[in-house]
Design brief:
28% of the residues lie in helices and 19% in strands. The chain is α/β, with parallel strands linked by helices. Strand 4, helix 2 (83-91) and strand 5 (98-103) form a beta-alpha-beta unit. S-adenosylmethionine (SAM) is lined by residues 29, 35-36, 73-74, 76, 102-104, 126, 165, 167, 194, 196-197, 199, 330-331, 335.
């Protein structure tokens, strides 16, 4: 299948321009968040995952095809050996506007400064609660203090933006929402609330019962804060509000309650080298297999990426009330 396109832009069948690539560089993590992983996870062997060199080659080709923003994620990207070197290389890609990173914050005390120097512009740091006991219960292995110290150190660096990400689960951390916003205001940073997505089987809660919608969160916040809708777009699905009288923006990522697929501008590279066209579907092509062929040439990779635009689905098919159709966990895909 070939489009015969010679353009340097990636455009899908629905006219959406793809300018954003998210890359999961490892499925491994030092946490085991209850919504993301099972308690006992089997991780992929080294041969099954892309090498850092392969990741760099794919990222470079994407920038030649018009991608302007790359997010490195995982698993926990900072636990992969060589992650910093890869970020330094990516930071030098001439036509890339923004290199950004999503992290659980556990390594930021040591790595915030080198990350900033490597050219990482913005950080998303996951933080679902400020209560150490709940934090331990949600992450299973995480240490809240370490993450809070990481945020402190990150703030001393010249990132253009630091944003917290919080997945909100009913009766688990939904009561924490106002505290998290107060914390973000105090720190002078932003925060996004995320509705849980049904990826992989989780044991600790029923996803339909734990559903807490963005509208519920907004209603909780309205009792204490004045949220003013902004047109700010960061090329993502977040719908942003300014907290009046502060510099903090609150975003809502609402895959269930407010579908955002119409403006999708992204594709994902999984840790196994699949180019995944939609987080909520399995449409993908295998770039690892292609790159490991004996007769592999970069032009083949370029054409495969252009052709893949033809199979990008129109929208995700998440349904909280059914067994997950998507068996892949978020750590494989890169949230
Ligand atoms: N380890 C890093 C972290 O936690 O930020 C990066 C990878 S993690 C998979 C990226 C984001 O996905 C995190 O903000 C996490 O909270 C979110 N996430 C994980 N599983 C999710 C799920 N099932 N539904 C919605 N968000 C999820
Ligand atoms: Fe690890 Fe991030 Fe998944 Fe938590 S959400 S288990 S920190 S990859």
């Amino acid at each position: 299948m070939t489009t015969g396109l010679t353009t340097d832009q990636l455009i899908d069948r629905f006219g959406r321009k793809i300018t954003y690539l998210r890359i999961s560089i490892t499925d491994r993590c030092d946490f085991r968040c209850v919504y993301c992983m099972a308690e006992q996870m089997e991780f992929l062997p080294r041969a099954a995952i892309l090498s850092l060199e392969e990741i760099y080659q794919i990222a470079k080709v994407f920038t030649e095809l018009g991608v302007k923003k790359i997010r490195i994620t995982g698993g926990e990207p900072l636990v992969r050996k060589g992650a910093l070197g890869l970020l330094q290389q990516l930071g030098q890609l001439a036509s890339l506007d923004e290199l950004v990173l999503t992290t659980n914050g556990s390594q930021l005390v040591e790595l915030a400064e080198p990350l900033c120097k490597a050219g990482v512009k913005r950080l998303n740091i996951s933080l679902d609660t400020l209560d150490p006991i709940k934090f331990k219960a949600i992450t299973r292995t995480g240490n809240l203090q370490q993450v809070l110290q990481g945020i402190e150190v990150a703030k001393t660096q010249k990132f253009t933006r630091i944003k917290l990400n919080a997945v909100i689960l009913k009766d688990r951390n939904h009561q924490e929402v106002p505290d998290l916003v107060r914390f973000a205001i105090q720190q002078g940073i932003d925060i996004s609330f995320i509705e849980e997505m049904p990826l992989g089987i989780v044991e600790q809660h029923n996803r339909a019962e734990a559903y807490y919608s963005s509208d519920d969160i907004k209603a909780d916040l309205a009792r204490e804060f004045s949220l003013v809708h902004t047109e700010t777009k960061t090329g993502g699905p977040s719908d942003y509000f300014h907290v009046a009288g502060t510099t903090t923006k609150v975003g809502f990522i609402s895959p269930h309650s407010h579908n955002f697929c119409g403006s999708c501008n992204r594709v994902r590279l999984t840790v196994e080298g699949r180019l995944l066209l939609c987080l909520g579907n399995e449409h993908s092509i295998d770039l690892k297999q292609l790159m490991r062929r004996e007769d592999y040439q970069e032009a083949d990779l370029k054409q495969a990426i252009i052709d893949a635009m033809l199979i990008k689905p129109e929208r995700h098919e998440f349904n909280l009330h059914e067994q997950p159709v998507i068996m892949r966990y978020m750590n494989m895909t890169g949230g």
